Amino acid sequence: MLTSSAAMQKQIKAVVVLPDAYKKGGRFPVVYLLHGFGGNYADFTKNYPAIKQCADHYKMILVCADGNVSSWYLDSPVDEKWKYETYVAGELVNWIDQHYKTIVSNRGRAITGLSMGGHGALSLAFKHSDVFGAAGSMSGGVDIRPFPNNWLIAQRLGPEAEFPERWKENSVIENIYRIKPNQLSLIVDCGTDDFFYPVNLAFHERLLSAKIPHDFIVRPGAHNSAYWANSITFQLLYFNNFFNKK
User: Fold this and answer.
1) Distance of CA 120 to CAs 123, 127, 206, Å?
2) What is the per-residue pLDDT for 246?
3) Which whole number is the average pLDDT over 20-28?
4) Which of 35, 36, 166, 199 could be disulfide-bonded to 43 (CB atoms 3.0-4.6 Å)?
């Protein structure tokens, strides 16, 4: 379906997965799913069809957002046409709340993603904990600074050598100060053979130091669909538990 972004003056596609129970009435929690670099809004339903059964089982709405191929889900200081933080955390959430029977509260919203989307999910949740009550990351790029020449990040932020503060400000690991213990329910997952494993380990250590409770899952695996197919079902279970907390 088409959603709209006033900030970027365009319509943007999204996939909305409704649970079977949706027809029976009531209001439902929502999990926003963010794709990785080079992907699009259709990736989750195409590559991980088990999420549809999870939506039915847990009675939750899933929204597969589009972050363009390389937005990193941020508002670019280089190009004002790229305002994907504004879109996902504001415009898309408002659009979904207006068009579907949602729980209009951070107690009824979670966000997660893989790779670039893992970075995006945690970054948006840290900056907008009034919008999202729980967040996750699967093989997320939680510190972008070690990768100055990768994945078109420099096109969004400018070269790291010229704008180190921008790169710091847009790395999730440097945004932990924005949240207090138990303000967000957090789950982080990364395989030991993943090129993002060292930054995820450092992120976990930094969360421990800040006394921020979180689930940190480490298992053998690389940066690929096989790993994420396992991750996503665990994360949706985690979010279901969050939604059902009294």
Assistant:
1) 5, 11, 18
2) 75
3) 95
4) 35
CATH code, 191:
3.40.50.1820
| DSSP-derived pairing of the beta strands 15-17 and 61-64 | antiparallel
Backbone φ and ψ for 194, nearest 5 degrees, come out as -85, 140
Residue 38 and residue 69 in contact, taking contact as beta carbons nearer than 8 Å = yes
Q: Quick one: the chain helix, strand, coil %, rounded to 5?
A: 40, 20, 40
What is the C-alpha separation between 174 and 186, in angstroms, rounded? Answer: 16
β partners of residue 112: 33
CA distance to 17, 76, 120, 159, 174, per residue, from 202 (Å): 34, 26, 18, 23, 11
Dig out the tokens for 2 from the structure.
Answer: 């088409």
Within a 13 Å sphere around the CA of 143, how many CA atoms are in the beta-carbon half? 16
CB atoms within 10 A of CB 130: 10
The domain of 94 spans 2-243
The answer to whether residues 47 and 64 touch, using CB atoms and an 8 Å cutoff, is no
User: ∠143-146-152 over CA atoms, to 5°?
Assistant: 85
Q: Are the C-beta atoms of residues 222 and 191 closer than 8 Å to each other? A: yes
105-123 CB burial, b ≥16 within 10 A, e <16: ebebbbbbbbbbbbbbbbb
Tokens encoding 105: 């509260």
Q: How many independent structural domains does the chain possess?
A: 1
The structure's pTM equals 0.97
Question: Quick one: tokens of 146?
Answer: 């070690």
* Short-list 111, 81, 83, 82, CA closest to 96: 111
Distance CA 39, CA 138 (A): 15
